[in-house]
Amino acid sequence: MKRLLYYIAAVGALCGICATQAFAQHSSSATQVVTFSVHRSTLPASLVSLSSSVPDGRRADEQILSSEHSPLPRSLPKLTVTLDSRQSKNLALELGTANAVVDVKNELITYATREPVVLTVSD
Amino acid sequence: MGKAISSLLVVFVLLLVVPLRAIAQSGTSVVQIVTVEVKPITKIAVNGNPGALTVVGQSGDPSASSVSDDNTRYSMVTNLDNVKIVASISDEMPDGTRLMVKLESSKGVSNGPVDISRALTPVNVVSGINRGSDLNQSITYTFAASESVNEINEQSRVITLTLTD
Question: What is the ipTM of this complex?
Fold first, then answer.
C-alpha cells in the first residue's frame, strides 16, 4: 500500500513537471535607458534665434551682423542664442575680438548646454 | 583397416566443417538509445542606449514639439514560430509628454510607432515573428511634449524589450 502511494506521488510529480514545461513561456529581454528633457524659452518670438547656426570655422561676428535685428531700439538690439557648450565657447572667443560687440554676457561662458543666452550688442 | 577408415572419416568431417565455418557470418550486436532534444530558443539584444531626447524651442511653437532618435538597433533569434516583441516602461512619462517606440522588423510585422508612455504592462511592438534571426534592426524613439510643457529637467526611463511566445 505504501509503495502504491509512492508510485502515485511520483506519477503526479512527473505530470506536474510536464504540464509546466508545456505551458511555460520562453522569453528573453533587453533594456535601454531613455533620457529626455524639455527646455522651452518664453522669450518674445521677435528676438532673433541663431540656434546652432554658427558653423565651425566661420566668424561669429559675421553671422551676427548678417542676422536680422530685432525690432528693439537700434541702440540695443538683442540676440537669442541657443548653442551647445563647445559652440558657446567658440562664439565667446570670436565675439571677444569682434568690434561690433561691446558686451558679452558672462552667461555665454557658463557652458549651459542648450540653454538660451541673451547677448547685448551694439551696432 | 578400421583405423584407416576412422581417419578418413575424421578428415572428411573436418573438410566439411571448416568451409562451413568460413562461410558462416559471425558477430554480436549491442543497442544504444541516443536521446536528442532542441530546446526552445529566444534571444534578443540591443546595442546601447539612445541619445538624450531634448525638446527645445520657444513656447507656443508647434514645430518644436517632438524629437526622435534612431541610432540604436536590436538583434534577435528564435527557433519558435509566431513570437512577438513587447515593450514596457519603468515609470509613466510626465503629464503632457509622450514616448513612442518603433521597431523595424524583417521577420515579423512592426506595429509602427507605439505609445509606451503608460506601458507599465508590456505592449506589442512587433508580432508574427517566425523562426530565424533578425539582425541590426533599427529602434526609433520619439519624445513629444505638448505646447503647454515649457520645462522638464532631465529624466530617464528604462525601456524593456522582451521577445516572447
Answer: 0.79
